[in-house]
Prior knowledge:
Blueprint: E1 11-16, H1 35-48, E2 58-63, H2 70-120, H3 123-162, E3 165-170
Parallel strand pairs: 1-2, 2-3
Amino acid sequence: MKNHLKPNEFTLHVKINDESQIFSNLNFNEDNLNYELGNYLQEKAEHEFPLPLKENYTINIHSINPNLRLPEVTRCIHHHFHNRYDAEKRKLRDNLRFALILFTLGMLTLVLNYFAVTYFNNFFLTKILDITAWVFIWGAVEVSVLERHNIRRNCIILRRLAFAEVKITYNTKLDAPVYI
């Protein structure tokens, strides 16, 4: 089944002229990847290689700068995407919690609606409770089903970028067929 895959099919090519396009001077922690490069790699991965895929990406950095060291660049890229992946996983967990809270409020409002119909039989109160219950339940469905898909998709892409193999190719030509 894997015979139809090409070896360079999941390679993201990036052209870098100097270190400032990889490393950012604005961050003072370990995550000092240039923000624009991180966004570019994530957008390129989303658009060029749609899901589902089992293989990790390969990031090939084409540069004319011989001062780039592979361990530093690899650590920087991996650390950056691990941080983004952790943030998306937290967002996924918070999304599930919010959906459960909305669903619980909707069910509680349905129970109150049942008691209002049974004991009070007030038309306006029952209609308000009925509408409120279905708004909460639909909110839970929307959050858990519709928004969760996009967050999970981002998690998968960020995890694959966090474990990507990084290569540096030293090109002397400036007209190499690469991006950025």
